[in-house]
Design a protein that fits this description.
Number of domains: 2
Shape: rod-shaped
Structural class: alpha+beta
Number of helices: 5
Number of strands: 4
Distance between the termini: 129 Å
Strand content: 5-15%
Oligomer: single chain
Order of helices and strands: HHEHEHEHE
């Protein structure tokens, strides 16, 4: 009995040695690179070898080792896939967090801009005579360099308020004919309107008027008073777009 047992142990040892010798070849069938078998595959091979040897002798050891390699490599690949999926999820979560922060920042900027526009609108409602006056030289319709800067600032304000309109009215001193002064005052108003449009005010939100010398009150020969008559008044108003019109 003892001799038989020793022979079985010896045969089993030879089978195990043979299986260990052929293990890289078996593992190579389960992986693309035989020199880089995964640790789970190696563990599975040894475990399968031992179980197969006990269950079916040398042949069982070989079969068990092969099955162990395949199972171990399968677990290894699943673990790698799971790790890659977790990394992708973490990246997606970080991107989602970044996008949420960007949206929150944009909402904050829009809220601030809306609040600023509301404040400007409220100031505009409380100021009936918000605007500027532009003076002109005798028989001239050119906007002076000094007048351009305040016109641009006012135009930027009107452009930022969709409900705001601007009324541009031209005037002339009492010298000359009515027809001449009507045309001159209208050209002056058009010149001022052009500067406002340069600042971003849409043309449809500008009312242009030419009043000629009808509003002149200067005494005859009063040159200083004449200078005050040669002007264009610019006034900001809150009104419906249906009220915007051009008086020629």
């Amino acid at each position: 009995m003892s001799a038989r047992k020793d022979r079985r142990i010896g045969v089993l040892g030879l089978a195990i040695a043979a299986c260990v010798t052929t293990l890289p070849a078996i593992a190579g069938e389960a992986t693309e690179n035989p020199a880089q078998t995964s640790k789970p595959a190696d563990v599975g091979a040894v475990t399968g070898l031992a179980i197969g040897a006990l269950a079916g002798g040398p042949v069982g050891a070989v079969v068990g080792a092969g099955i162990g390699v395949v199972i171990g490599e399968g677990y290894h690949r699943q673990a790698q896939s799971k790790a890659a999926l977790q990394r992708d999820l973490q990246t997606s979560e970080a991107e989602r967090t970044r996008l949420s922060a960007s949206v929150a920042q944009l909402d904050s900027s829009l809220s601030q801009e809306r609040s600023r526009n509301e404040e400007l609108g409220q100031s505009l409602r409380q100021t009936d005579d918000l605007g500027v006056d532009v003076s002109f030289r005798t028989n001239d319709d050119s906007v002076t360099v000094q007048a351009i800067s305040p016109l641009l600032k006012l135009g930027a304000l009107v452009a930022s308020l969709p409900q705001a309109r601007v009324r541009v009215a031209g005037y002339a001193d009492p010298r000359g004919s009515e027809a001449w002064n009507d045309a001159l005052s209208l050209r002056r108003a058009d010149s001022v309107a052009a500067v406002l449009m340069t600042a971003g005010v849409p043309r449809e939100r500008i009312v242009v008027e030419g009043h000629g010398k009808t509003a002149a009150t200067s005494a005859a020969g009063d040159l200083d008073a004449y200078a005050l008559e040669r002007r264009v008044t610019v006034r900001v108003q809150l009104q419906d777009s249906s009220q915007v019109a051009r008086n020629d």
